[in-house]
Amino acid sequence: MQGRSSGAASVVVGHPLDTIKTRLQAGQGYGNTLNCVLTVYRNESVAGFFKGMSFPLASIAVYSSVVFGVFSNTQRLLSQLRHGDASHAPVLADVALASMVAGFVSVGIGTPVDLVKIRLQMQTQPYITANNKVKPTVPGFPMYRGPIHCFRTVLQKEGIAGIYRGVGAMLLRDVPGYCLYFIPYTFFCGWINPDGCISPNPSSVWLAGGIAGVISWGTATPMDVVKSRLQADGVYLNKYKGILDCILQSYQNEGLKHCQEDLISLLLS
After folding, report:
1. What secondary structure, in 3-state letters, does the chain show?
2. What pLDDT digit, counting tens, does each position of 123-173 carry?
């Protein structure tokens, strides 16, 4: 119960920053984080910061339980196979492999949730393309009435492939991202708490998790930008043909700036 409550609280607190992150990644004309915050508030009031929150809020308990459960159980299985004792401290290779498995599982669960969230966050955002003559039919007006309508509409129009749009970019983000989270987390947790990470004190968990989160998201930002742009693509028109095309267009239009433009908002969220 406490885990579900803390997970829900983290979504509610972090979602406004996630909305800013998504607008900076996939939107146009904001310039910087502060200007984005002021623009969203001026045009959409406080409610604008919480668009698309219901799906993540409803799924966070299942998502966290499954991902961390897969990581923990895979780690124990590898320790059992390697040492004959599931409670044996895992070696680095086992932590890395368990992290990769958790990353694959997280993508399977998280891609549809992220797609609906991003579509709802971006659907009233004016869509501007420098090299595309096609104009959105109803720019600036909501296409989806809510998360269920969004999910159903995407499924009807684009099929399963539409629901899993951006899955490749999410794999490239989450598989290495989880490795770069769980490995530093395990290291710092063990370093701060010499008795190991079986029953660490809360302060060591917070500190180790914070450091690991900075490392993980700091390196995952470029592919997170690509994922957000691919998933936001299609609200009014399709601009990108795939991961490589999105990377090339982003680099041609913005250089390397697009890779780090939202890093502050992302780390805060």
Report:
1. CHHHHHHHHHHHHHHHHHHHHHHHHHCCCCCCHHHHHHHHHHHHCHHHHHCCCHHHHHHHHHHHHHHHHHHHHHHHHHHHHHHCCCCCCCCHHHHHHHHHHHHHHHHHHHHHHHHHHHHHHHCCCCCCCCCCCCCCCCCCCCCCCCHHHHHHHHHHHHHHHHHCCCHHHHHHHHHHHHHHHHHHHHHHHHHHCCCCCCCCCHHHHHHHHHHHHHHHHHHHHHHHHHHHHHHHCCCCCCCCCCHHHHHHHHHHHHCCHHHHCCHHHHHHC
2. 865 544 444 444 444 445 678 889 999 999 999 999 999 999 999 999 999
